[in-house]
Amino acid sequence: MKRAESQSSPQADRLASVRSLLRAMIVPVASVVVALAIGAVIIVVSGANPLVAYSALFEGGLGSSRAIGRTLEKATPLIFGGLAVALAFKCGLFNIGAQGQLLLGAVFAAFIGFSLQGLPAVVHVPLALLAGAIMGAAWAAIAGSLKAFTGAHEVITTIMLNFVAFNLTDWLANGPWKDRSPGNIVARTPAVAPEARLPDIAGVPLGILLAVLAAFAVWWLIWRTTIGFELRTVGQNASAAKYAGISVRRMMVLAMVISGFLAGLGGAIETLGVVGRFQPGFNVGLGFQAITIALLARTNPIAVIPASLLIGLMQAGAGRMQFNSGVASEIIDVIQALILFFVAAESIIRWVLRLRAEEGERVTLSSGWGS
Amino acid sequence: MIAEPEIVLEARNITKRFPGVVANEHVSLTLRRGEVLALLGENGAGKTTLMNILYGLYHQDEGEVLIRGEPVRIGGPSDAIRRGVGMVHQHFMLVPVFTVAENIILGAETGRGPFLDLNVARQRIRELSQRYRLDVDPDAYVKDLSVGQQQRVEIIKALYRNADILILDEPTAVLTPQETEELFAIIRSLTAQGASVIFISHKLKEVLAIADRIMVLRRGRVVGETTPREATERSLAEMMVGRSVMLEVEKGEAHPAAPVLVLDQVTVLDDRGQQVVNGVSLEVHAGEILGIAGVQGNGQTELVEAITGLRPVRSGRVLINGRDVTNASPRRISETGCAHVPEDRQEDGLVLTYSVADNLVLNTYYAPPFAHGIVRDDRAILEHANLLIEKYDVRTPSPLTLVSALSGGNKQKVIIARELSRKGRLLIAAQPTRGIDVGSIEFIHQQIVAERDRGAAVLLVSAELDEIMALSDRIAVMYHGRIAATLPAASATREELGLLMAGAQPLNAAGESPMDGRAPVNVQQRGI
After folding, report:
1. CA distance linking residue B95 with residue A4, whole number of Å
2. What residues in B contact A16, CB-CB < 8 Å?
3. Model pTM?
4. Which of A133, A315, B291, B428 would be a feasible disulfide site paired with A264, CB 3.0-4.6 Å?
């Protein structure tokens, strides 16, 4: 009798999964809508027309093939950052350090990119990408190990490591790896070799293809492998994980390493695909937008793609919006902050929409101090 | 018979709904002056909800509450106390580093201006203590008191606030049999002096021993009212569960073979670094159930954690199947064939946000057929789940249902199914039936005996003496981190075990009791 119930028809299963997908989307979508609505009020207060402003925003992000290209370009590192933060969340870790890991990835990809010459692209590109990813992973491993072996909270250590990364990369770009070409006075590395630049594949930048591929790979890792099961078990209930024979410490380090690997790869792709060198200031903010994206995507790796595209679109269209409507482009930062606020304080949205909390795996923003 | 005393508390047609469940449905109850009303029911039957309504923690959706004939709306615990209703919770709410008197006046401080004056309070506490024979020293620190004494502090706390209607929520869960008898003596002296008591329990023996009237709740409804004179354990169990149940565990003779688990002078520290297991040596043989009896907190939890690799062994050795697994990883110990039903099922044994199917492979997910390399085989996991759900009678709508949606008994059956289906040579079961329904208890007991008969060695740890006595072939009593004695189950008596659990030396257990000659009230001899 119980078997009969459990073997429900495939159609019913599909229907149920579609329904649960829609239910999972309510809060993120509502958060974006409410954030845009509050943004509109602010635009009105500042004396502009929100309809004009928003239509310019979308035009700047979607209105032409160049606009779309810009949105994809902005979205690419965001997808990697979002995946990095989402994966750490699955293991119960709040990786605020995606920013630092991304910077390390960007600067080391640049180093491999400009210091080696004459390599064929099929060798040079993967080498530079890998260098960036590994440095990101190593940087994150510091925070992961501190958490696993001393209990130092990852929120604190990753924030600290972000500062170290800012200054370390600044120093590299202004010191040993500085672009010494005549006339250059700013802190930046030399341009990477042309063979190290990311090519377009059939007109689409390789970076966004890799980002989408990474999203599916992370999804597979989390939901289809034993490693993913171990990560999620540690994230959901560390003492049950211990009981089940999973090494909680090992998983914490591993989760941070994979997370840092993704963030570092994002930074490397930004260097090799967009900037063409490392220049301090170019990637600032990406790591923090990644947190918004991971939460907006409810830590679902596939949902990270649309969430990144949305934030990327806002970044891409902000300039047009300022130009057309006279609204300061900083309003975009306000809207993003509001989105983060509402997805994080989910119960506000649930209260507004009179929704009940849903079942399923929880996202814990941060475990207790010293736990 | 004299005229019936006045009704002090009455609930009429109480209905309380929570999203998805009706916790109480048209429940009515009356409590007379000077009587003990026992509220009997399984976990989830609605006992606690009803009491929380009477104590003002919830408000009923329908129905009314009358105190001394007057309809009242109880706004909260402080309102309830003002109206004379006091509650002693299962978990005490005391500050360990405060004295008894300080704890009792907390929230009702006496004094002049901002300065405390404890003398008045001390005096009253002494009076109350004498009047009801509670034997509590107002100047003792709570941390130095035994669990039974702490409970009495909680009772005085209610009396100090002039409560004459006392609600005791599962008060015997943490007590030794002797302490339980002392509590019963106190309850009788309270009711003799006009107080009324609601006694909540799921233990049939105790309810029969202490109650004047018994009310049985099942699934939020009152299914019957009876008196100890009319009822038997069997009839109460049937009312509680709704069908006939086997109270005795059917089991044949044990055929013990070679030792499977050997502990040699094991010592273990607790979280605070105190040595709570002090040189325990034990052998559990294939084909026998060794029960560890003891009041909670005497090192049993830490001992089990040390055997299963969840807590370091400080000194001594642990051998399973002749192999030294001292301080081995939980994974390695599990792979030697050690199945473990953990004490805290919500915290250690299950991931509540996972499906039943995932929980059924929680510690075997990494090996074939559930995984090939690092790739999970979802089909094999689902098939496995369907098989175990059927075999172990887990009541779940689907293997993909989240475990958090199951009842306590079914949650435990998921763990039992997972651990027993591994067919290990050693089963360690800690509190395997704590807080679950009688029907599930019956099933789990049968399964544990079946494991023994299959030839597994079983180490059973339980705070329920009845469970230990019903299942074990040998009984080891643990007290203050040591094995006080190991007895054959066939000849062990409740009294003897109870004394050992309270720290008596095994030699004079039959003679002088260590309890200052305070005569234990015989539970069986009560009959009004």
Report:
1. 53
2. none
3. 0.80
4. A133
